């Protein structure tokens, strides 16, 4: 059977697209599987796009537009309608600011186009202060899901949450499923921790528009959604319909930039960084800018999620997500790449209990912000691909005499029958997401083999929406327990 070529529109050509989408699409073009036909980006980013395309030696058509909110401009809709029809477009990658995910996805669903979209599914301006905006995160998802379910054909809508594809997390899920099948015991506790290792100076909090704080959202809408989603995957893998929780209660607390500048003040920066003390650089915002910091998005958040069945507590999850944590940054001026480098290191861990039967611990800690030029797997503690799993099993179900087993990333790759890599795994699995997307369009991968369909994300979105709602209620001195029906 002849394969169908994937004719792709890439919407958004920022740092993430530069790191992930452009290189894999270039490779897929060389393999004859895909054509990158069109890139859409903001007019203000024109020079950056030209520089990126020159580096990859690719020349798609380009459309530069002005920014918009809420709905696509009529002229953009008309342009896309004509372009899709005349160029036989059958796939789109949406890699934009998440505030415009919904209008682009809505249009592409109506046009019958296969969609691969970055996380989060949506967010809203001022979601850290406006309860209606926090609730709209869930409403947006339900709207897109209804459109997806009612659309004609077998098109896919994939959300790029790469931990679903990561061999380490898939191995952990296999361990959880194995014990669930033996004991019928679901996950009873999860402690999840993620730190981006970013140190943004106060003036950068005001000015930077990539993963911004100044539009009223932060960590939960940045990398935080990945953590909500893998919690969804872990828990869902462990439960039967008979034991599935039917509601949850969420309590959360944020640290915003107004709290951050109380932790490290202007004089502290001058003491730590002599360049600032010499008057060469001013990193401190104006008084008027600081007054707005209480409306800025969250740097750090903590949340407790209580799962209930028939109004009885059956599991507790704790989530601690941090932007303002250990960083390798030692310089004043930010780097040009705000996605990787710039002092950013990742620390991530999970402690998962399955009643008295199993404890699965996941540890992933980097100590280096240079992720390029790797020559080996680099899986030791502090390495770019550090990923260890420690498993403790009750002797009644342990398959060996040892109740503890340790697996490093090399062990895991062997167990999952996957070869080693000289790339950062969290990036190489994003390439796999794109390959799967293109393979589906080519007709060489079935719908059943696709991971991260839109309809698998309800619980992830409910967590995100509830966490924002709880914080807002706390700041307004209201009852900050947010109650939600789940897995409906």
UniProtKB/TrEMBL annotation:
InterPro entries: Gfo/Idh/MocA-like_OxRdtase_N, Gfo/Idh/MocA_Oxidoreductases, NAD(P)-bd_dom_sf. It comes from Oleispira antarctica RB-8. Residues 7-124 form the Gfo/Idh/MocA-like oxidoreductase N-terminal domain. It holds the Pfam family GFO_IDH_MocA. This is Gfo/Idh/MocA-like oxidoreductase N-terminal domain-containing protein. It comes from the Bacteria. SUPFAM superfamilies: NAD(P)-binding Rossmann-fold domains (SSF51735). GO terms for molecular function: nucleotide binding. The lineage of its organism: Bacteria, Pseudomonadati, Pseudomonadota, Gammaproteobacteria, Oceanospirillales. Gene3D superfamilies: NAD(P)-binding Rossmann-like Domain.
């Amino acid at each position: 059977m002849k394969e169908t070529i994937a004719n792709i529109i890439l919407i958004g050509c920022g740092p993430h697209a530069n790191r992930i989408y452009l290189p894999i699409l270039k490779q897929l073009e060389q393999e004859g599987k895909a054509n990158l036909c069109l890139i859409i980006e903001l007019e203000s980013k024109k020079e950056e796009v030209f520089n990126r395309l020159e580096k990859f030696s690719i020349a798609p058509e380009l459309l530069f537009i002005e920014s918009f909110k809420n709905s696509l401009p009529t002229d953009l809709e008309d342009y896309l309608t004509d372009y899709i029809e005349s160029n036989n477009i059958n796939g789109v990658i949406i890699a934009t600011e998440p505030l415009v995910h919904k209008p682009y996805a809505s249009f592409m669903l109506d046009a019958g186009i296969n969609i691969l979209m970055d996380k989060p599914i949506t967010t809203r301006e001022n979601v850290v202060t406006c309860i209606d905006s926090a609730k709209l995160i869930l409403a947006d998802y339900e709207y897109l899901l209804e459109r997806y379910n009612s659309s004609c054909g077998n098109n896919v809508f994939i959300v790029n949450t790469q931990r679903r594809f990561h061999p380490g997390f898939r191995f952990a899920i296999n361990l959880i499923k194995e014990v669930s099948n033996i004991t019928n015991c679901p996950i009873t506790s999860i402690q999840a921790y993620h730190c981006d290792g970013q140190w943004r100076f106060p003036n950068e909090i005001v000015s930077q528009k990539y993963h911004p704080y100044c539009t009223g959202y932060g960590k939960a809408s940045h990398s935080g959604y990945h953590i909500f989603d893998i919690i969804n995957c872990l828990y869902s893998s462990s439960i039967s319909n008979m034991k599935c929780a039917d509601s949850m209660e969420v309590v959360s607390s944020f640290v915003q930039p107004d709290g951050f500048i109380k932790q490290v003040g202007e004089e502290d920066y001058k003491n730590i960084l002599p360049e600032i003390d010499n008057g060469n650089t001013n990193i401190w915002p104006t008084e008027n800018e600081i007054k707005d910091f209480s409306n800025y998005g969250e740097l750090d958040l903590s949340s407790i999620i209580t799962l209930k069945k028939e109004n009885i507590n059956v599991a507790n999850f704790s989530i601690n997500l941090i932007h303002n944590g250990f960083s390798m940054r030692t310089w004043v001026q930010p780097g040009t790449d705000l996605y990787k480098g710039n002092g950013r290191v990742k620390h991530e861990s999970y402690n998962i209990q399955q009643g008295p039967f199993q404890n699965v611990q996941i540890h992933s800690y980097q100590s280096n912000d240079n992720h390029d030029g790797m020559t080996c797997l680099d899986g030791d503690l502090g390495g770019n691909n550090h990923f260890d799993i420690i498993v403790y099993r009750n002797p009644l179900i342990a398959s060996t005499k040892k109740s503890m087993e340790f697996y490093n990333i090399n062990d895991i790759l062997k167990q999952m029958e996957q070869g080693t890599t000289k790339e950062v795994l969290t990036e190489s699995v994003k390439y796999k997401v794109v390959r799967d997307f293109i393979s589906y369009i080519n007709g060489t991968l079935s719908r059943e083999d696709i991971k991260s369909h839109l309809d698998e994300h309800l619980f992830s979105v409910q967590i995100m929406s509830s966490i924002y709602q709880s914080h807002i209620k706390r700041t307004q001195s209201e009852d900050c327990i947010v109650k939600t029906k789940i897995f409906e």
